[in-house]
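Good morning N.,

You mentioned wanting to compare the apo and holo forms, so I went ahead and generated the holo version with flavin-adenine dinucleotide. This is what I fed in:
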Amino acid sequence: MTQKLDWETAPIWLWDQGSAPIRPIQHGTDRVDVLVVGAGLAGTATAYYLAENRPDLRVMVVEASQVGLGATGRSTGIIGPGLGMPMRSLRRRYGDDVAAEAFASTLDGAAEIGRLIAAEGIDCDARLERQVIGALTERQERRMRRHTRDLAELGFDVPWWDRSMLDRRLGGAYRAAFAYENVLLVDPYRLVTGLAVAAERRGVRIAERTRVTRLETLPDGVLAHTPGGVIEADRVLLAVDGYGEKLNPHPSSVVPVRTHVVATAPLTAHQRAALGWDGVGGVIDQRNFFSYYRLGAGGRLVFGGGPARVPSGDPQRETRTSAAIFERVVEELHLRFPALEGVAIEACWSGLTGGTLDRLPVVGAVGDNQRVHFAGGWCGHGLSLCVSTAERYARVLAHGRSTASGGSLPWFRSRASGLPAAVRSTGLPVYLRALDAQDRTASRPPTPSAPAAVQIPQADPTSELVSHQGGEDRAA
Ligand SMILES: Cc1cc2nc3c(=O)[nH]c(=O)nc-3n(C[C@H](O)[C@H](O)[C@H](O)COP(=O)(O)OP(=O)(O)OC[C@H]3O[C@@H](n4cnc5c(N)ncnc54)[C@H](O)[C@@H]3O)c2cc1C
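and this is what came out, ligand included:
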């Protein structure tokens, strides 16, 4: 399988990279202690920690395309705290101690990524800034106030911005806002590829362009079948998140969802001054399908949003749907920043992440099989969670212990509630459309203006980059 990187579908992060190393395809028979399937941030970080904790183990990562070309390298690289499940629900369902530990683990993940970047000398354009959460409506503000009250009661103080801060930093575009400080912004592709190189330095083997097609559990291990051979492993971690397709062991509970991002041409100093935003950090609103943005990749505005979609499996339909959503994202961008109406949109891309019903990940042995494990369903909050989870779960995999070793965090579980296939294929798309309709009627950004006609680069349906199937959720 050849990787084709069309500029229309490749994330902007790949533009400034030069060529990433191409690793060998797996063939023949390999024998390893731990096999990690999927080289996004979750798989790469787990392999890294495994090699760090147990240099004696043979650890191999097998990636269907290339390192980082799943959701990780297509993300916007805002490494903020938080989970998909609202804090109120976490507290009610699991109690305050667990809720506090859960939130703290997302802060730990972000701090740990900073430590890894420094320790391994990963050049990924990392900046320590902030993540601003802005309310467009009274309802959103109420929800945010509940959230920060819950955090405060658990000991995490997140101050609100006053009117003058809102005006100075966001140009008055939101009715209210708070910010998580010390949030890392990175080039996510360089982060994950840098971490892969660091894992290799510690002895991890990585094969690319090798899809694991089937797993066979044997009495004394697992046989992973690939197009060119087999890998015998004592235990396997499926770090495939929204891209698992047939290998997703939780098809009813970890559902792939596609989300979309666009990037402008590099902004001039004049254009940046006209934004009415100070350009610091990542900003996200509170709609069901929120808009979020940051500056990066050579001074471009990277802007994500629009309705999330469950992939149809039909490449032509996917291309049509994505083209319409890209139009919509550009419209949102112009509503937020009317001054950018004449600025070229240089790239549009999408990515798949795994969402779950309760908006918490699923990390653990698959059912009763202690040899096959899964880590995914990050519900769009993956970057920090992937790493805090990888650090903990590598210890489980290193010693072959049961999932109980994950501690009290509620996403260390062998299964999660799911939806029947019929509801997933018909009910879920209808539900997503209803959420979108609610966004359209209830909460448009202020300062609307008529969007100019835009030239959207069309995704090439033959590209490997758009042939993935998978999903996404909320990012703050
Ligand atoms: C557009 C977008 C923007 C986002 N922005 C942010 C953000 O700003 N902040 C944030 O925290 N999160 C963000 N996210 C979410 C975040 O990117 C993900 O949660 C996270 O990267 C998931 O990492 P992962 O390693 O689990 O999965 P992935 O990075 O998707 O990696 C899974 C890998 O598994 C491989 N694979 C699948 N099946 C097989 C197989 N059978 N054999 C071999 N390999 C296989 C795939 O090719 C893929 O490379 C965003 C996501 C998207 C799509």
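The first strand starts at residue 28 and ends at 37.

Happy to go through it together on a call whenever suits you.

Best,
F.
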